[in-house]
Amino acid sequence: MALRCGTCGLPTLHQIPQPLAGLYFHIPFCHRACTYCDFHFSTSLRTKGPVLAAMRKELEARVGELEGASLGSVYFGGGTPGMLSPGELGGLLADVRRLAPVQPDAEITLEANPEDVSAASLDAWQRLGINRVSLGIQSFRDDRLRWMNRSHDAARSHRSIGLVSAAGLRTWTIDLIYGLPGMGLAEWEEQLAIALGHGMPHLSAYCLTVETRTALHHQVAAGRVHLPADGEQAAQFGHLIARMEASGLVQYEISNFGKEGHFAVHNTNYWRGVPYLGIGPAAHSFNGVRRRWNVANNVRYADAVEKGACHWEEETLTPVQQLNERLFTGLRTMWGVGLAELGDRFLQDNAKAIGRYLALDELQVRDGRLMLTPKGRHFADRIASDLFATDDDR
């Protein structure tokens, strides 16, 4: 209940990044509203000053929740964090280093759009300690970018990738979207070929989904936009997996592919259930048992933090909810979930279902871990939900 205020070539387990705590900043500002996006953001910068001041105050008030744990990752997401000035980003990072122990090799990620990238901005970001940039490319076709209401064009995408690639960052990544209206395998292959041609070390690829309260939702509801059939989207997903494998990028999570040494530390730890602290409007936090999320309104957030008032909701997960969440996120990764984590009772209760998925070659058990097979990755959410425990008395 929510409470208000209150041998197959897979990398071995020793290659899983160490579970150090994470810190997430939600920067709720964007140049414009994308057709498909349902994240919290504002296209007005009127509240930027008060929101950033409130974020610094919230961090100082809540850093104790980390219980002295060293930070292995700091992630600036949004929104579009690349819109912030170096001084604004630097102020937040200075507070982090003053208030919490940060590992010398911590991954510090900044999400940015192509229009935010220049040689000067990259130099400034690196001087602040940012060592990973996540570029929101989405498509290399101008007609697609216009339909998405993106602020950049394809030429800007290519220039930004060239700058990021040459900047000397520890690593970088791009986002692409498939399953677009009218998209076929030929177009998707074109997109992947372009991305691989840039020598990217990491790719996040997402199937277009229709979220409520978005422009896309209204377009689909009105019959103006028709998405590809499930089979077509599945074919594009299958082609993505094969193309990345052939190019040496490992599918370490359903939507994420990286070369060895370039897996996202912050997101990997999220999928493994590692605690993280979220700062800013709409930011989520999780300590393994309790989840907390801030109000998704810039004015209300800034005002409440300034007054020391409640600006969040939270829930405490039951043991069964914790188990189901671990199963849901863990199965999305190539490491799966340890049988010891699931427990004897879960394995006994689900022996028949697990056996069925083993026979279908959609699940496998290796090195004491339950994981999806390549075939099973097409059905990750269905398999996990089918195995969910329901007995809250266990």
What would a concise description of this structure say?
This protein has 394 residues and is of the alpha/beta class.
Output the keywords.
394 residues, alpha/beta, Arc Repressor Mutant, subunit A, 4-stranded antiparallel beta sheet, 15 helices, disordered N terminus
- Determine the N-to-C terminus distance: 18 Å
Major sheet? 9 strands, mixed
The CATH topology of the largest domain is: TIM Barrel
Give the count of structural domains.
2
Under CATH at level 1, the class of the largest domain stands as Alpha Beta
What is the assigned CATH homologous superfamily of the largest domain? Aldolase class I
Structural category is alpha/beta
CATH architecture of the largest domain: Alpha-Beta Barrel
Question: Which strand order does the major sheet show?
Answer: 8-9-7-6-5-4-3-2-10
Task: Please give the number of β-strands.
Answer: 16
3D architecture notes:
The chain is built from 15 helices and 16 strands. By secondary structure, the protein is α/β, with parallel strands linked by helices. The protein has a nine-stranded mixed beta sheet with strand order 8-9-7-6-5-4-3-2-10, sandwiched between helices. A four-stranded antiparallel beta sheet has the order 1-13-12-11, with no helix packed on it. Helix 6 (185-197) runs parallel beside helix 8.
Topology diagram in text:
Elements: E1 3-4, E2 21-27, H1 48-62, E3 71-78, H2 86-99, E4 102-112, H3 119-127, E5 132-138, H4 142-148, H5 154-166, E6 171-178, H6 185-197, E7 202-207, H7 215-221, H8 230-246, E8 250-253, E9 256-258, H9 265-271, E10 276-279, E11 284-286, E12 290-294, H10 298-307, E13 312-316, H11 319-330, E14 337-338, H12 339-342, H13 344-349, H14 351-359, E15 363-366, E16 369-372, H15 380-387
Parallel strand pairs: 2-3, 2-10, 3-4, 4-5, 5-6, 6-7
Antiparallel strand pairs: 1-13, 7-9, 8-9, 11-12, 12-13, 14-16, 15-16
